[in-house]
Amino acid sequence: MVLDYDQDDVAFWEEVRDWLQTNAPRERRPEAGPEMRAFLLAWQPRQYDGGWAGLAWPKEPGGQGLSLIWHEEYAAAKAPPIGCLFVAMNHGGPTLIAWGTDAQKAFHLPKILKGESVWCQGFSEPGAGSDLASISSRAVIDGDDLVVSGQKIWTSYGHVADYQELLVRTSRGEKKHDGLTWVICPMDAPGIEVRTITTISGSQHFCEIFYDNVRIPMANVVG
């Protein structure tokens, strides 16, 4: 009920509802592949230009620090699911806000908010699943680069991503979680192979990723 909100919330609610009714795409979002990427990278800049991108992000990196009313109205307006922008908006971007360098924030956060880049997540592995303490993909320091070898699996939208939040093992300590490094991996780096996985429903949004001595600048290490 509207009475559950204060007047500022009510005004914001009405503004959100009016904007979404006018601007939300009416056509169905493509389910997967380059078509979904193109659709969402056209919709995201429209949200950015309207002042509605990254509402839950702090104001300093370009967010609004606002409430969940947007998400309620977004669903009510049947606006397109966030799909391949999920990792960038809800995980990669917020991680950079918390732990990224000034240079990493300045380069990546505007691109995420404006819908200029797609991210995927490189965490799960065939022998570890989601037990991140057991991952075995390795990275060794060679000059100004990390050299990565290994494999990830169940990487959603890896075939349409520009960057990956990649978790690798750079050392081993007494605790299994020691020695893990979070790094920004450009998906066009030489040595990366992406294979799509067809699910029982016929969709192909999952991928397995192979890394063969992939060189990633040390400047891409986060935290």
Automatic annotation (TrEMBL):
Domain Acyl-CoA oxidase/dehydrogenase middle, first and last residues per copy: 120-214
Presence of keyword Transmembrane: no
Keyword Oxidoreductase belongs to the record: yes
GO cellular component: plasma membrane
Domain Acyl-CoA dehydrogenase/oxidase N-terminal: 8-116
UniProt cross-references to InterPro entries, sorted A to Z: Acyl-CoA_Oxase/DH_mid-dom, Acyl-CoA_Oxase/DH_mid-dom_sf, AcylCoA_DH/ox_N, AcylCoA_DH/ox_N_sf, AcylCoA_DH/oxidase_NM_dom_sf, Mycobact_Acyl-CoA_DH
Gene3D superfamilies linked to this entry: Acyl-CoA dehydrogenase/oxidase, N-terminal domain, Butyryl-CoA Dehydrogenase, subunit A, domain 2
Molecular functions (GO terms): flavin adenine dinucleotide binding; oxidoreductase activity, acting on the CH-CH group of donors
UniProt entry keywords in alphabetical sequence: Oxidoreductase
Protein known as: Acyl-CoA dehydrogenase
Species the sequence originates in: Pseudooceanicola nanhaiensis
